[in-house]
Specification:
With 205 residues, the chain is mainly α. Among the domains are: 70 residues; 57 residues, no CATH class. It contains 9 helices and no strands. The longest helix is centred in the C-terminal third of the chain and has 15 residues.
Length: 205
């Protein structure tokens, strides 16, 4: 295992170096990065980028079944399929939903009805803390907070990308023609924005 220790803060006048200059290099090992930002991935790994595809319905259903205390709940394929679709097959959202269902002894249909409530109540539901052995202890990252962090990062990085998200939230959840989106300063800027939103899995082409 390689452990890199961070040095002192940059001093005035000190030359800045890109992150890659500080990474250890050896033929005896390698470094694996995980990131949602494809642009960073390409800059660091160049052609050695491995895309992790979004979870499909079958894999999502299997994950849900493994997380439920009452596995019989998942036998209703209609409810299971509808719930997974609402959660957009997002693993974190599935695990969080299963935890809430387990703790409150409710059905998948009951959870679906909660997702159909007013926006404020849905945000409250998706902000519910939950325990998961796959996460670090004391880490607070329910779905709503995770999405908010991603949105804040996009907002700081690219204002037009944030404007696109806000605009799309007022239109339709799917099948929005790109021609409807607000015009960017240039065609390149628009391509960059769509790339950023795709990177964060907020949109799919």
């Amino acid at each position: 295992m390689w452990i890199a220790k961070a040095g002192p803060r940059q001093q005035p006048g000190q030359e800045l170096h890109p992150l890659i200059d500080y990474l250890l290099k050896s033929k005896q090992g390698g470094i694996v990065f995980t990131t949602r930002d494809r642009k960073i991935a390409v800059k660091l790994a160049q052609q050695n980028v491995v895309d992790v595809p979004a979870m499909g319905e079958d894999a999502a259903a299997e994950l849900l079944g493994k997380c439920l205390v009452n596995v019989d709940l998942a036998k209703s394929w209609q409810d299971t399929s509808a719930l997974l679709l609402q959660l957009t097959y997002l693993p974190l959202a599935i695990v969080q939903a299963a935890a809430y269902i387990n703790e409150n002894a409710i059905s998948l249909a009951d959870y679906l009805s909660l997702l159909a409530e007013q926006e404020e109540e849905v945000i409250d539901l998706l902000s519910e803390e939950f325990e998961d052995d796959g996460r670090y202890r004391n880490i607070k990252n329910p779905v709503a907070i995770t999405w908010l962090i991603s949105f804040n990062q996009i907002q700081r990085r690219d204002r037009l990308a944030a404007d696109y998200l806000l605009f799309m939230a007022c239109i339709e959840p799917t099948d929005i023609p790109q021609s409807l989106l607000p015009a960017g300063a240039s065609r390149k800027k628009e391509v960059d924005v769509i790339g950023t939103l795709t990177t964060y899995s907020f949109v799919n082409k």
